[in-house]
Amino acid sequence: MNQTFRSAVRVGAPGLGRGAAALLLSAHPAPALAVTALITALAVAAGRDAFGSCLVALAVLTGQLSVGWSNDRIDLARDTAAHRRDKPLVAGEVHVRTVAAAACVALVLCAPLSLANGAAAGAAHLIGVAAAWSYNLGVKRTRWSWLPYAVAFGLLPAFLTLALPGRPWPAVWVVAAGALLGVGAHFTNVLPDIDADLAAGVRGLPQRLGRRRSRTVAALTLLAASGVLVLGPPGPPDAMGWTGLAVTGTLAVVLCLPLGTSPDSRLPFLATLGLAGADIALLVARGTALG
User: Fold this and answer.
1) Which of 143, 188, 205, 258 has its CA 20 to 30 Å from the CA of residue 11?
2) What is the pTM of this model?
């Protein structure tokens, strides 16, 4: 999906300006837009009005852009050594100072936009953004690489509910589901690049566990998130919940089987994406129960 997004942006580069297109690609736009769309949908489901939902979207988008730009800037030396010509910075399509400045500007804008949702809600979001930056700044190279994802995703529901009247803290099951989804997203995101990361000296938890065990952890973590989303809310699960649990359970079994072990196989990555997609659908469906 990210490669398709890159191709589409480059096709339109003459209209946008080559430098602007390269800067946009340096921000990892596909995941940034996906996370922004997800959280905005959750904000609407949780009862935020149009203005409040726009504030949420802008805060999340600026935070995500700052994380994406900082990632490419911080990893420039490693990406250059790995000959990552798909990276605009490595290819010389955008200046290093431009990307660094964009990351700082986005981070500065993220602060007031987050706090405009309320002090408590804004603080929750900014802690999550700080966790993501900590990942870029070095936590990704340690056995604690999963922790920033757990913190950032676990606090996103709090960012939404603490902005509602009465500033309620989200239900425990929502926070747990968000944290599990974040950890699963971490393992899913790393799966295709484990060998390249190891060659570059990046030894986060997925790299230490290896490809086979990492895909199993991704499957079980995302399945656990499904279970929490289906069984956590009060009352018996509905048909959609049971269906989602059946789909994620089937995908988890497929991932845990000794299939698609070739480093070039896209099956594990695509299956974990399917698991994450099912979890996201369940999370949005239960947005009205966030508090």
Assistant:
1) 188
2) 0.86
Residue-by-residue DSSP string for the chain: -HHHHHHHHHHTHHHH-HHHHHHHHTT-HHHHHHHHHHHHHHHHHHT--HHHHHHHHHHHHHHHHHHHHHHHHHTHHHHHHTT-TTSHHHHTSS-HHHHHHHHHHHHHHHHHHHHTT-HHHHHHHHHHHHHHHHHHTTGGGSTTTTHHHHHHHHHHHHHHHTTSTT-PPPPHHHHHHHHHHHHHHHHHHHGGGHHHHHHTT---HHHHH-HHHHHHHHHHHHHHHHHHHHHSSSS---HHHHHHHHHHHHHHHHHHSS---STT--HHHHHHHHHHHHHHHHHHHTGGG--
**Amino acid making up residue 263:** P
Point out the residues of the chain with pLDDT beneath 70: 1-16, 258-269, 273, 286-291
Are 39 and 102 a contacting pair, CB within 8 Å?
Answer: no
pLDDT tens readout for residues 188-243: 888 878 888 888 888 999 999 998 898 889 889 988 988 998 888 888 888 888 88
